[in-house]
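Running co-folding for 2-deoxy-2-amino glucitol-6-phosphate.
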Amino acid sequence: MCGIIGYVGYRRCQDVLFEGLKRLEYRGYDSAGLAWRENGRFECVRSIGNLESLGSALAARSAAADGSESSPVATAIVSAGIGHTRWATHGGVTERNAHPHSDWSGRVRIVLNGIIENYLELRDLLAAEMIQCSSETDAEVVAQLISFYYVGDLSDAVRRAVAVLSGHFAFVAMCDDEPETLVGVRHECPLVVGIGDRELFIASSISAFIRHTRRVAVLHDGEIVVLRPAGVTVFDVDGFPQAPRESKVDWDEDRCEKDGFETFMLKEIHEQPTAIAETLRQTRVTLGPAENNPLGLDHLRDVRRMIIVGCGTSYHAGLAGRMAIERWARIPVEVDVASEFRYREPIVEPDTLVLGITQSGETADTLAAMRLARAQGATVVAVTNAAGSQATRDADAVLFTRAGLEVGVAATKTFVAQVVLLYALALNLARARETLPTDRLAELQRGLELLPEGVEQVIESVDGPIRELAERLVWSPFFLYLGRLSGLPVALEGALKLKEISYVPTDAYAAGEMKHGPIALLSRDTPVVCVATEQRVLPKLLSNLSEVRARGARVLAVATEGCKQIAEHAEHVVYVPATDPLLQVVLAVVPLQLFAYHLARARALNVDQPRNLAKTVTVE
Ligand code: AGP
C-alpha cells in the first residue's frame, strides 16, 4: 500500500521526507519520490525500485546542484515538501508514473494514496480544456484539476477538485505560489497530522513522524487540512474551520510500526477488513471492461477448465476459490499443491486458465508450476500481493491482492484477500458465462462487499472469548480440525496456523473422513475444532460430531448465527454472521486465526517470527 509524508518546518526537508518514507517502507512499494522547495524553486526526484535507488538519485541531484552530497541544515527558513512510496495501481512501474505528480505547468504537486474511480472521465474533461496528462496515473489528474481550479488559494482549489472526485483517497498538495503551505485531504484513506515545535508533519501513518513528535491531530473522513508555519487548520466536510483535535501518542517506535498492537500478526488480523475492501476495489479495476484485458469478460467467457496451484495458506485459498468457481461459474477446477503439480506430469491445455497463488510472488514451487503450465500453452495468471515479484514477471496477467505488506510469518490478511479476489473472479466468470441469475449475482456481489464489515464484527465479538478459551486449552497436546465443503479449507487453514505459530501438533480432515482413521486419535484430552457453517451438510456434520463426543473429546465449533442445533453438540460455539456459506469462509477463519494467536501468546511464543520459518520460501 502506498505511503505519504509531508513536512513544513525548519529542517532540511528532503532528509525529513526521506526518513519518513523509510518508516513507511514496511507497507510495500515499487517506486518512490520527493518534491520540495529549495532556493525558491520546486525540486522533484523520483525513482523506481527501493529507497536506496531514491537515495542515490537524491545524492546525485545534490552533487550536481552544489557539489555536496547533503547538508544537515535547511537552506531556507521554512521548507516544505511531500514524499511518497507508490505501489502501482494505474499504469506500470515507471519513473513517470511515480509520485509526486504535477500539473502541466509544474506549479502544483501532489502525492496520493487510494484510487480515483472516475479519473478517466476527468481526464477527458481536462483534455476538452486542452490539458493533457503525461502519466497513466489517476493522481496526475488530481494535480491537473487543482491547478485548473487554482485562483490564488490552494485550499479552495483542493476543495473544488475534491467535489468532482469519486473513489477513496488521501492526498497532500503543494503549490509554487504558496511555498510554505501543504493541503491534505482524507477521504476513506488514512491521513494524520503531527504537530512539532515550529514544524508540522502529515502522513498516512504516525510511524512516518513519531521520531519527531508524539502530538497528533487525527482527521475525519471528508476533512481538508491546511499546514502552514503558523499552524494547522482543519476544515470539516462543510468547509467550516475547526481547531485540530489533538492527542498524544505514547507508543514507542516499535509499537508505532505495529499501529499500537503488541505484534505484527495481531495488527495484520485487525487489518483484514481493509485488506478485503482494498482488494475488492482493485479487483474492480483489474476485472473491469478495459480493452485487451486478459481478465475481461470476453476472455473469461472462453475458459473451459481451470487449475489452481499454490502452497500452504495460498493453497487453502485456492480450495475455497475452486468451490466458488465451480458453484457459481460451473467451470471444472483442479487445485494442487504446487510442489506436487510440477512433478506429476499434469495435463494442461491451451484453453486451460491456470492461477498461481502466492502472496510473496517468490515461492519456488509455485513459480515452477506456473512456468510449466505456461510452457504447455496455458494462460497463466499470478494472484499475488507483491508488486514487482517474480510471479508478476512469469505470468500472462496479474491479479493483485491489496493486503499491504504482511510482516508476520503467519499469513492472515493475505489469505482473506486471496479468497475474496478469487470470489470476485468467480463472479466475473459467472457473469461472462451467464451461469447465475442476475439477482443471485447481485446478492453475492453485495455479500462480498459486506465482508469487511462482517470481519470487523467477528473480530470485535470473538476476540475476548477466544482468548479465554485459548488460555484454558494452552497445554492441550493435540488438536483435530474438522470441516465439510467450504468449512474444510477453513479447518485446514486453522490447523496450519496453530501448528505454525504455537508448535502444537494438529491435523485437519474432511469431517466425513474422520471415522476412516483419525478417530483413533481422539480422547478426553483432544479438543476438536469444527467449522460448521455449511447448512447443506449440517446434519451430516452433527452426526460426525456425535462420533467425536462418543470418544469423550470436547468440541469447539464455529457456526452460523441463529444455528440452534450446534449448541447441543459443542462445548463452546463461536458464531459468525449468516451469509452465503462460501462468503463465510472469510468470516469463519478469523476466530481460528485469533485462537492460534492467543494460544501461542499464552505459551509466550514469538508469533511474528516462529522458529524454522521464513516469510518467503524460495527453495524447496
Ligand atoms: C502460512 O501461514 C505460511 N506462511 C505459508 O504456508 C505460506 O502461505 C506458503 O509458504 C506460501 O507462501 P506464498 O503465498 O508467499 O507463496
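Result summary
The first strand starts at residue 3 and ends at 9.
Residues 381 and 463 are 36 Å apart (CA to CA).
Job closed.
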